[in-house]
């Protein structure tokens, strides 16, 4: 990692330390009384310490470690998605192909930087292959729903997420050797948008923006969180190849995509009758609960960079 990356992680550590201090003070003031909001806040902060540490170690180890990290992220996300989706015995060939062939192959293509294939491998070749595998068992019960479920899970949990480590494959003039900062900027801006929408909603939220999909999201939280995260993204332009205003516009677009991605994933959860995708990350739910916004933002960010800067 270069000095900019180290400075960035030092700043993140300072912010988390401040957040931990605030959480500690709030907990002390509440005394022995249970306060679900404060407990959830502290659980989220503790989980963020772990996630930042894991990402920091992967960054320190280099390109291969980052690809492996996101491979594991995709694996757990895909498992959560498939666990909540209905399956039948005849789906096993398609599921086996998804976990043991498509997932590792996609990240192998990303790892070696074969853009021409990893960009179309899942949306073209696998899109056609999986329905064939699902049809081999001869089971037509809810066939279209079952085939779409596997394809949708691969698109969200594997194809979209794989565009995060794919940022390492971009060649940007004047930005050589600093692509890790692009990953850090993307994840930080989109995740801060989620956090700030949550905080602004708790502090000033009154009007629900999508009560049937996500009752906790409010108009005030949406506007405040996205505005603040966009300002932070613009302020961090120095770690990107963008100017201040370019960083602001891109951060705004990514935050909007992240918000609507969260609504889409919430709609799927409501359809399945669950609140969270899982319980892997304390205070956050499952892996997909933390990835919903990144899933929708990462491919757009990657292709925008590749087209205009790559």
Q: In percent, how much strand structure appears in the residues?
A: under 5%
Rg is: 20 Å
| Averaged pLDDT | 89
What count of helical segments does DSSP give?
A: 11
What low-confidence regions span 5 or more consecutive residues with pLDDT below 50? none
Question: How would you describe the shape?
Answer: globular
GO biological process, one term: peptidoglycan-based cell wall biogenesis
Protein name: Phosphatidate cytidylyltransferase
Pfam family, one: CTP_transf_1
Transmembrane segments: 47-78, 90-109, 115-138, 150-168, 180-200, 221-239, 245-268
Describe the structure.
With 310 residues, the protein is mainly alpha-helical. 73% of the residues lie in helices and 0% in strands. Helix 3 packs antiparallel against helix 4 (92-111) and helix 4 runs antiparallel to helix 6 (121-135). It is globular. The chain starts with a helix and ends with a helix. The mean pLDDT is 89.
């Amino acid at each position: 990692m270069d000095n900019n990356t180290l400075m960035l992680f030092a700043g993140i550590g300072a912010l988390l330390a401040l957040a931990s201090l605030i959480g500690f003070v709030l907990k002390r003031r509440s005394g022995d009384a249970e306060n679900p909001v404060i407990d959830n806040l502290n659980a989220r902060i503790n989980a963020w310490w772990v996630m930042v540490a894991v990402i920091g170690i992967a960054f320190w180890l280099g390109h291969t470690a980052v690809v492996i990290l996101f491979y594991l992220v995709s694996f757990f996300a895909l498992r959560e998605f498939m666990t909540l989706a209905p399956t039948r015995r005849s789906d096993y060939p398609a599921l086996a192909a998804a976990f043991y062939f498509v997932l590792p192959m996609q990240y192998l293509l990303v790892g070696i930087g074969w853009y021409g294939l990893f960009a179309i491998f899942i949306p073209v070749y696998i899109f056609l292959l999986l329905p064939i595998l699902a049809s081999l068992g001869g089971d037509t019960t809810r066939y279209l729903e079952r085939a779409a479920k596997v394809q949708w899970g691969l698109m969200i949990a594997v194809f979209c997420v794989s565009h995060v480590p794919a940022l390492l494959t971009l060649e940007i003039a004047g930005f050589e050797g600093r692509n890790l900062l692009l990953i850090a900027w993307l994840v930080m801006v989109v995740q801060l948008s989620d956090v700030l929408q949550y905080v602004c909603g708790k502090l000033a939220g009154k009007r629900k923006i999508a009560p049937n999909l996500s009752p906790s999201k409010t108009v005030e939280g949406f506007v405040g969180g996205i505005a603040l995260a966009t300002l932070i993204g613009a302020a961090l332009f120095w770690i990107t190849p963008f100017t201040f205003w370019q960083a602001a516009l891109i951060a705004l677009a990514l935050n909007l995509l992240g918000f609507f991605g969260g609504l889409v994933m919430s709609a799927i959860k409501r359809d399945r009758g669950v609140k969270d995708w899982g319980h892997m990350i304390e205070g956050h739910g499952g892996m997909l609960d933390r990835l919903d916004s990144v899933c929708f933002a990462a491919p757009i960010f990657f292709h925008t960079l590749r087209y205009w800067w790559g």
